[in-house]
Specification:
The chain has 302 residues and is α/β, with parallel strands linked by helices. It has a single domain, classed as Ribokinase (UDP-N-acetylmuramoyl-L-alanine:D-glutamate ligase, 3-Layer(aba) Sandwich), CATH 3.40.1190.20. It has 11 helices and 13 strands. It has helices at 41-51, 66-77, 120-124, 127-131, 143-152, 171-176, 184-191, 199-206, 247-260, 265-279, 292-301; strands spanning 5-8, 12-18, 35-39, 56-63, 85-88, 94-100, 106-111, 134-137, 156-159, 179-180, 213-217, 223-227, 230-234. The strands form 2 sheets. Strands 5-4-1-8-9-10-11-12-13 form a 9-stranded mixed beta sheet, sandwiched between helices. Strands 3-2-6-7 form a 4-stranded mixed beta sheet. A hairpin with a 2-residue loop joins strand 12 and strand 13. The longest helix has 15 residues, at 265-279. The chain is globular and about 50 Å long.
Length: 302
């Protein structure tokens, strides 16, 4: 049976340490106890969408190791179909090293491992991609694999270009993307325009992209939706974040969830900024991802 959302992307084990402040270059800081948490942008978005009530399949690669087994088990416990989560011999599961400072901001270094082995051939015949209403993509897998998934997708293609690819983005990919969801820094890198420091500049920059619709996430400032050449700013709830690690991932999942339900892009973004904000009110990547019912409760208490 076709799923609502197919997620094509990364699965990582997050190694997280809480610190008073993120160290400067050459500086050593002492942190709290090491936490091992399931993560990876692809897996985070898959779990987030499943917790929001949609049927989800994960297409990706993990190593043939304990970490891979752990991540697959967590996905399955959250109701995500893992039939197309492939094992990769001799290459370890991806790992992310994350330092989270006291105000919730973080710095992340990713060792892709098996994620780098997800190939265009792996996705070309993956039934979830061919049949899903929404295909959700990121940039922690090879860009040629992202392009291949976008080519074969029959449903709406949503691309979250995170982290912003260092290589040149194929123009064909941007043409195939129905909804592009970068943050402000990723928009700067994608367009090569340089520093973008105002809503007016964001809107002007987005208009240069060939994608039919774009949502730029702005953290505590909410998001800007650009559709049909019209821009709408969606403010975010005022909260005191604990950990921002997976907020962007839950935002993307909420967009996909809302579009499955037939909402327009502005309605979807209004819901997504609430989901993203609620995510920052709990610690860790996947452990922080809320159900629909938990969103309102967390925001009320946060």
């Amino acid at each position: 049976m076709p799923v609502d959302i197919a997620v094509v992307g990364s699965c990582n084990l997050d190694l997280v340490v809480n610190v008073e402040h993120i160290p400067l270059v050459g500086q050593t800081v002492l942190g709290g106890d090491l936490q091992q948490i399931p993560g990876g942008k692809g897996a985070n978005q898959a779990v987030a969408a499943a917790r929001l009530g949609k049927s989800v399949a994960m297409v990706g690669r993990v190593g043939d190791d304990e970490n891979g087994t752990f991540l697959q088990t967590i996905l399955e416990e959250n109701g995500v179909n893992t039939e197309y989560l492939l094992r990769t011999a001799s290459i370890p599961t991806g790992v992310a090293l994350i330092a989270v400072q006291s105000d919730g901001d973080n710095v992340i270094v990713v060792s892709p491992g098996a994620n780098s082995e997800l190939s265009p051939e792996d996705v070309m015949d993956a039934l979830p991609i061919l049949e899903a209403k929404m295909v959700l993509l990121q940039a922690e897998i090879p860009i040629e694999t992202v392009l291949s998934a976008a080519r074969v997708a029959k449903g709406t293609v949503i691309w979250n270009p995170a982290p912003a690819p260092e290589e040149t983005i194929p123009l064909e990919l941007l043409d195939l993307v129905d909804v592009l969801i970068p943050n402000q820094r990723e928009l700067e890198l994608l367009t090569g325009i340089g520093t973008i420091n105002s809503l007016e500049k964001i809107i002007e920059t987005v208009k240069t992209l060939p994608c039919s619709s774009t949502i730029v996430t702005l953290g505590a400032q909410g998001a800007v939706v650009m559709a049909n050449n019209e821009a709408v700013h969606i403010p975010a709830p005022e909260i005191s974040p604990i950990d921002t690690t997976a907020a962007g991932d839950s935002f993307c999942a909420a967009i996909a969830e809302s579009l499955v339900d037939g909402k327009d892009l502005v309605e979807a973004a209004q819901w997504a900024v609430q989901v993203g904000a609620a995510t920052t009110l709990a610690a860790g990547a996947q452990p922080s991802l809320p159900t629909s019912e938990e969103v309102a409760q967390r925001l009320k208490n946060g």
